[in-house]
Design goal:
The chain is 16% helix and 25% strand. It has 155 residues and is an alpha/beta fold. It has one domain. Bound molecules: iron/sulfur cluster.
Length: 155
């Protein structure tokens, strides 16, 4: 069962999109130097379709994308919610920030228009650091990945 701690409207996480970013808890990754250790705890509000609709309904006219931040413990549940957004809010894109180095083989990449992969390595920094190990990809309808990480580095 997915739970989330909070959410926010953000402009930097997905370039060129206004994104509703939902911070999912119970993260199974144990990145050394984790920047949000509270997200490793099993805390927060259950994130099911009813709750997701409630949140997205509030902001759907102001955003262009819904991004699930985490959820690596239950990739299929994240995918299911992504499809819920795509069906109920067809004008919105879907994104997933996974902390895994490779995409879970339990889901299809085509469930998202954007996928971020890679755990947090404090020595390499986040996506806006040119030395980062993380990557943000756009995903087309056939499931082909295009690395767009460099968009974080342009001024
Ligand atoms: S993916 Fe890594 S940095 Fe992000 S919440 Fe989980 S342990 Fe922390």
């Amino acid at each position: 069962m997915l739970k989330y701690y909070n959410y926010d409207i953000v402009f930097a996480e997905i370039p060129k999109e206004v994104t509703l970013a939902i911070n999912i808890t119970n993260c199974p990754n144990r990145c050394v130097g984790c920047h949000s250790a509270y997200l490793q705890e099993d805390i927060g509000v259950v994130l099911d379709e009813t709750e997701l609709r409630r949140i997205v309904d509030m902001y759907s006219k102001d955003i262009t994308c819904v991004c699930f931040m985490g959820g690596d413990a239950e990739p299929e549940a994240v995918e299911q919610l992504a499809w819920f957004v795509r069906k109920q809010f067809p004008s919105l894109k879907t994104a997933w920030y996974s902390g895994k180095a490779v995409l879970s083989d339990k889901i299809s990449a085509t469930s998202f228009q954007y996928i971020k992969l890679g755990g947090y390595d404090a020595s390499k920094g986040p996506l806006n650091n040119p030395n980062t190990n993380q990557r943000l990809y756009s995903v087309d309808a056939s499931g082909e990945f295009t690395d767009i990480t460099q968009l974080f580095w342009k001024k």
